[in-house]
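Objective 1b: paired records.
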Amino acid sequence: MKTAFIIRQSSDDQGTIGTLLTEGFSAFVIELPWRDNLSNLSCIPVGEYEAVIRKSNKFGTVYWILKVKNRSYVLIHSGNFAGNTEKGFKTHSHGCIIIGKYVGKIEGQKAVLLSRNTLRQFMNHMGRESFKLIVTTPSAKADGFWHKAKALPTP
């Protein structure tokens, strides 16, 4: 089974930006800000998960992240924003991970860009097969996962 890493880099009310890395592929992600793992309001906890392919009525074919504590239907899907709506920011996420090629701003808000195409590329790269997902931060000491992730080649 392949492994992908999400290394979170920064977080504020406009969202949590990270880098998704797997051998031979890299992209950016945006997630909701950390809000104590509250369903529909927070990014998921740092940890190790399994992601499987799933058909979503809303998003089409996506990856579903399994066994997220106290959460259900956490997906990797397309979109642009993952801001705190209680602070007036837009969101396309209710706890899911949104993938994109670039990080930028749309109408002054932090966003990931070229999302649909990047999601397709990622799914094709992973062979549309299940994979292990490790979500971490640069400061996390998770059995060397961060050092392994940094060592992966990127295009």
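Objective 1b, second protein:
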Amino acid sequence: MNAFARDMNQTVVPINPSVAYEMEIRERIVRVEEELKNQRELMKLGFEQMDKRLEQMDKRIDDQREAMRLGFEQVDKRFEDQREAM
């Protein structure tokens, strides 16, 4: 089982099986590194989207808290007005 490779002049030359195996390993390493890079980019995008979502949730919670505070102030004012009217 001989492996072949093309040299710089595009001629086909036989290569040693251990050299062919090493070339395959290097090609696999390159593919794995590329896939890891893609995975990192996807994770970064996911984290950015999660950050945006958490910011939206924080804003919504803050808005609800403010609305509740205003509601309590109105109720307190009504109680004070009723107490003064008595």
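The mean pLDDT is 88. Strands lie at 3-6, 12-15.
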